Amino acid sequence: MKAVVIEKFSAIPEIKNVPDPTPASHGVVIKVEATGVCRSDWHCWQGHDEDVVLPHVPGHEFAGVIAEVGSEVNRFKVGQRVTVPFVNACGSCPECNTGNHQVCGNQTQPGFTHWGSFAEYTTVDHADVNLVTLPEHLDFVTAASLGCRFVTSFRAVVDQGKVSAGQWVAVHGCGGVGLSAIMIATAIGANVIAIDIDDTKLEMARSLGAVATVNGNKVTDVAEAVIEISKGGAHVSLDALGHPITCVNSVKSLRKLGKHIQVGLLLAEQANPAMPMAKVIADELEIIGSHGMQAHRYDAMLAMMMSGKLTPEKLLGRTISLEQSIEALTTMDSATTPGVTVVTGF
To answer: What is the pTM of this model?
Structure first.
């Protein structure tokens, strides 16, 4: 099969012909029809994830058709249209037994623990636990865009943030995760303030429901701007980018008893931001992590999509070929193109 192969961290990947994958007894092989280009893939290429062993094929948010099924798989068969969350659970550990597949202690992640979806085919382990059947009306491009950024935002806003109608929600960073969070929080009835340093992205945030925007390069203090707009601070604030500045601004943006949700990855030299712990203590703030979403929670999200309350297709930016994915991947840290980039040409 054809795949994007990383031979050396930070060096330009190449398109190569590599052996087709085979499924584990509990897994499947999926013919990839669409795969998103995500900032996490950039971190993978940079060598920020200790699970990655070279040579490596990145890619973790995808949709496609089951091409081969392992002998122990019971719920799925060849030919089914499916997608998958980026955290693949084992289904039998203590975390999985409580339904918390997103923090499975034995988890695998396509594109990190094993070869991913920047290829014609990829594999999913423990398929009965991790695969999600696609509704017939849902196209592969939109489905692929759900697999990391949208589902991560859904869990962060709905399950972790427990956002409710009328609350003020601040979203720091208007990339794929941030724009998804804005759409989801708006659908719930929250008042969303979008923060970024790019006016084009802020304009898109408004089109998705943000009631106010803040350009971090045009105000003296982002947190003070959020507090002024919301008359006291956000009830829930998300760092959707993953940077010490956005992380600290998010915490400082909160009103008393507020919740900071850390969604964006803080890795390498940015892994340990200086948190304003005096405010955390004095205002009894909550600092909450959010990491992906379980396959069994897709039904709630898909129901909101079917009703028209969520329209993730509006977040799509451009579709590209596998060859073009190399430039998209390696420039992810500096790209300013709004919306989600999805590979559809293999």
So the answer is: 0.90
